[in-house]
Design a protein that fits this description.
The chain is mostly helical. It is built from four helices and two strands; from the N terminus they run E-E-H-H-H-H. Helix 2 packs across helix 4.
Length: 109
């Protein structure tokens, strides 16, 4: 039974007794962590999640996360993924909506 419909693209459907507060949204990220590496993929995810919520991530805030170390390192990671920040992650993405789609699902054999 549907308890709640999505309010906007990327929002989850709620079924049964699921509560919105229990869900962890995922942000569509146009990259593969095995290709980009964990540090660049993390920076890209951080920037994309801010983009999807209409805010701007900062190097100062990102530097405070464990493992980043410094504002200079954060800026370097941001620069390394700058070309991917605004890229559509899947065919359904308007920019960086919350996404759970399989990118190969739209391909016709």
């Amino acid at each position: 039974m549907v308890v709640g419909r999505p309010a906007k693209p990327g929002d989850p459907w709620l079924f049964g007794g699921d509560a919105a507060g229990d869900l962890v949204p995922r942000t569509c990220v146009p990259g593969d962590p095995q290709v980009l590496g964990a540090e660049k993929f993390g920076a890209l995810g951080y920037l994309r999640s801010h983009l999807s919520s209409g805010t701007v991530g900062t190097a100062e805030e990102y530097a405070a996360f464990e493992g980043v170390g410094s504002v200079e390192r954060a800026r370097g990671l941001f620069d390394a993924v700058a070309d991917l920040v605004g890229v559509r992650g899947c065919p359904a993405c308007p920019a960086a909506h919350l996404c759970t789609r399989d990118p190969d699902a739209d391909q016709v054999a």
